[in-house]
Amino acid sequence: MRGMTQNSSGELYALAHEHLPSDVAERWLGLLRPGIRLAAAGGDEAVVGQLGGEPRLPDTMEWPEWEGQGPLSFIASVDCAALPAGALDIPFPASGTLAFFYYDGQADGEDEAFVEVDDPQTWAGARVVYVPAGASTTRLDTPCELEAYPHVPLAARVGPTVAEPTHPQIQEVLAPDAEPFSEYEHPVCDDQFIDGLWQLDDEAGHQLGGTPRSVQGPVELEVARAALGPETDWHDPRLAGEMREWVLLAQFDSDDAADMMWGDTGCLYWLIRRDDLADLRFDKAMFTWQCC
């Protein structure tokens, strides 16, 4: 199931109280987490980042590459100081720039290479670069092996996010005795309520922080399993605890304006442990992607 919706708290409040018992509605609403939605800037909206185009990187830094495969494509960047201050419940940087790179296959030779969360040998194919505020930077030209994605300025819109009912953060509060990651009998699993959420918003979208809007089940689960070891059984009881350690740094959806298509209308995700985020250890971030 794809991750749940992000909308105004008023819309979600009305939907919850329409379909859920009052006490359940309030408990469910209490599980909403703030996220920052990124969308193409329009009119006089403040620009906080960009999809595509070309990045500004420290003067001493070369274009990121996956050794043995080729250069990574520049996906997006975000000016942390331009984001709404204090909007997130994670220690997101208050300044500096985050730039996201991903090996999208443009530089493939005879053999196709894919970045897979369960294959550590491919992890070099996705990277987060943090550029501190005040650093001397240069706008780098896209390597000749690649075609830059069209430049799309981004604006920020803060809103609540919530996980799907089988996500541990929901289950442990509303159905602590339910089988982890499995559907269970509860009003939040009712088809009418789920359909109502879909009608509010059915796209993954571009997002910073909050609960990831997954396409095929919780992305935190994929990252937790990779962190514990790719051979970890999907039913290992440690997975739920490990999932809680990981928070969404950013996700970038397929986007027509930026000519981005990840598989079949998929989405790219970067997650990181809270402590590593607070300490700006972005080399510890992990990447996964999902598609329909």
TrEMBL record:
Pfam family, one: DUF1963
PANTHER family: SLL5081 PROTEIN
Domain of life the protein comes from: Bacteria
Organism, scientific name: Streptomyces alfalfae
Protein name (database record): DUF1963 domain-containing protein
UniProt cross-references to InterPro entries, sorted A to Z: DUF1963, YwqG-like_sf
